[in-house]
Design a protein that fits this description.
Rossmann fold, transferase, about 140 residues, transmembrane, membrane, mainly alpha
Length: about 140
């Protein structure tokens, strides 16, 4: 099966009522962030990265592995036509606040200039991780637009 082009992916995500994200234990997962960037709510497994990126009942829903729970949240989105739009807008704001270039720049600046970070080995590790995460997320988000 071929991969979708960036424009096909953008069209699919931006017109969907929701994006279902099922991988368990995913460390970060860019898909929920991409969905929220396109103002599309996310229904995701309540483990790994989605616990950090999706705000339950605000930008989407976090679920157990129970299919009935997933179906209930899908129905909740379908019953209220304004809900996907409201959640989608909140998701977009969350992405801009936490995962934009400005957000990463601020986190990086704090990590570099804060004495506790500069003076500890953990702090130096955090600086490297912030820079790496910034580069990865920025590249993926820019690629998806």
């Amino acid at each position: 099966m071929r991969s979708f082009s960036d424009s096909e992916k953008a069209s699919l995500i931006s017109t969907a009522a929701a994006v279902l994200y099922t991988p368990e234990g995913e460390h970060f997962g860019i898909v929920p962030i991409e969905a929220m960037a396109y103002q599309t709510p996310v229904i995701a497994i309540n483990s790994g990265g989605p616990k950090e990126t999706v705000e339950h009942k605000e930008t989407g829903f976090l679920c157990s592995t129970d299919a009935t729970e997933w179906a209930r949240y899908m129905m909740e989105l379908m019953k209220d036509p304004s809900k996907p739009d409201t959640m989608g807008k909140k998701g977009r704001k969350r992405v801009e606040r936490l995962f934009s270039a400005e957000a990463f720049q601020s986190k990086f600046h704090k990590a570099v200039t804060t004495t506790e970070y500069r003076s500890s080995s953990w702090g130096r590790i955090m600086i490297v991780l912030v820079v790496a995460a910034f580069g990865i997320v920025l590249a993926l988000v820019l690629r998806s637009h």
